[in-house]
Amino acid sequence: MTRSDGYLLEHRQTDVHGQSEEDRQAEEDRQAEAAERLDAFADLFDPTTFRNLEAVGVGAGWRCWEIGAGGVSVVSWLAKKVGPTGRVLATGTDITRLAPAARPPVEVRAHDIGAEEPPTGGFDLVHARLPLLGAADRERAVRSMAGALRPRGHLLVEHTDPALQPLVCPDEYGPEQRLANRLRQGLHQLSHDRGTGLAHGRTLPRLLRETGLSEVRADAYFPIAAPACAALESATVRLARDRLVTAGVATAQDIDRHLANVAAGTLDLATAPMISAWGRKG
């Protein structure tokens, strides 16, 4: 047995669950990168979300449903606004990161907005950020959110629209920027091939109107060159690294070079626009 064979054998030893140490480390890395993406999303888009929620008028005693919550920032903000006389129900298919917020007035519950009926009781506010990722029926998901509102209740839905702005470096002036944009376009193609739509955000005003909501409005936020843009790009590329290489979009060396460019802080990176749409029932 050669040294390399021994090294591979040593690092492929499995635990009692049949998972190798290498596989276990890879899963831990994926979880860390996914958590980093969620944190970057919060840094980038929480201020816009809070501004929109302030405009809706959420306040003491409100009953709120926060959907697809991947972290505690919005949930905690809502809890302070509604106070001890209000209620915040936070739901998602994975509620691991919500555990620290699970104390009155916050209730945490596993729920799939794309497949399950909405909670009963009626809400003054339903808010969802990125709720349509993975939803087989977007129209059904939005109808479910609107159907959970009390009369005069507010629905605020926020979703990215990568197809509206397909470049991670809008100012494509050199080889580093061209590489970044090639990787981004490759990611979009992979998403398209998997049946994952890229044009979610632009549909929100129409979907809200079709549920019968009134006073429907929308806006968009498009950050460029924010520190969290770099964190989001790095985590996204690392998470998709194997798929990019397997699909022939880029070599491992291409990806390493791009990640080094991101870390150097010389790229003016952008995110997809986040479109926020809101309306009122009745």
Low-confidence stretches: 1-16
From the alpha-carbon coordinates, what is the Rg to the nearest angstrom? 21 Å
Number of domains: 1
CATH superfamily: Vaccinia Virus protein VP39
Q: Overall mean pLDDT score?
A: 87
Number of helices: 8
Distance between the termini: 75 Å
Proportion in β-strands = 15-25%
The largest β sheet comes out as: 7 strands, mixed
Relative helix content: 40-55%
Biggest β-sheet: strands ordered side by side in the sheet:
3-2-1-4-5-7-6
SSE run:
HHEHEEEHEHHEHHE
β-strand number: 7
Look at the helices and sheets and give the structural class.
Answer: alpha/beta
In short:
The protein is α/β, with parallel strands linked by helices and 282 residues long.
Annotate the secondary structure layout.
Layout: H1 3-11, H2 21-56, E1 63-67, H3 73-82, E2 87-92, E3 106-110, E4 123-129, H4 138-147, E5 149-160, H5 175-193, H6 204-210, E6 214-221, H7 227-246, H8 252-264, E7 274-280
Parallel strand pairs: 1-2, 1-4, 2-3, 4-5
Antiparallel strand pairs: 5-7, 6-7
Helix pairs in contact: 2-7, 5-7, 5-8, 7-8
